[in-house]
Amino acid sequence: MAKHIGIVACSAEGAALCYRTICIEAPQYMGEHMHPEVTMHTYPLGQYMVHIRSGNWQGVAELMLSSVRKLVEAGAQLAICPDNTIHEAFDLVVNASPIPCLHIAEAVVQEAMRKGYRKLAILGTKYLMTGPVYPKVLEGAGLGYEIPPEAERKEIDRIIFEELVNGIFRDESRRYFNQVIDTLRHQGCDAAILGCTEIPLLVDPGDCPLPVLDSTRLLARAALREAIKK
After folding, report:
1. How many CB atoms lie within 10 A of CB 44?
2. In CATH, what is the architecture of 104-214?
3. Is the per-residue pLDDT at 4 higher than 90?
């Protein structure tokens, strides 16, 4: 029996992509139309933003843990959070969680190492790009990284919160991401971390200047592997 996966959701579009990835990719391992049990719980993104904007990561952790407890009541045996930014509270969550929690950055960095990348561009919210979530894991793995300059970070953050989390995906915004990624390519990056779970719905690997590391799908696949592991 596969383990029951609990999804601690934060923003709808990224969480939906994570859920769909688990369900769509599971049959190749489990058989036609089969996937692990999946339960999702989410507080409104607005409640998270109150704490994120004030730098109150304990408040973020409390919301996440409340979701975990609800998921455990529903039978979940492992938890994932398809939101990169709130992983800044991950250590507070994992130490208090009654079930194992997978870290999104660890799933991404494992794939980067598997593919032999050495220096990664980090794209995400302004909190993610300037925060410790990816640098901590990348440095532990001996990998380098770059983030965009402040003006580009500001515009990427605007696109995420005004467009992507609201299900708006514009060609103009996709071209802007590609422009930023191309600049980071010229700074020596050999792959780009799509470190907001909505970015994979915008950026097309087919015309992106760098190979992409899709944090949403990589987390979903890590959860799937863990769920079916014997």
Report:
1. 12
2. 3-Layer(aba) Sandwich (3.40)
3. yes
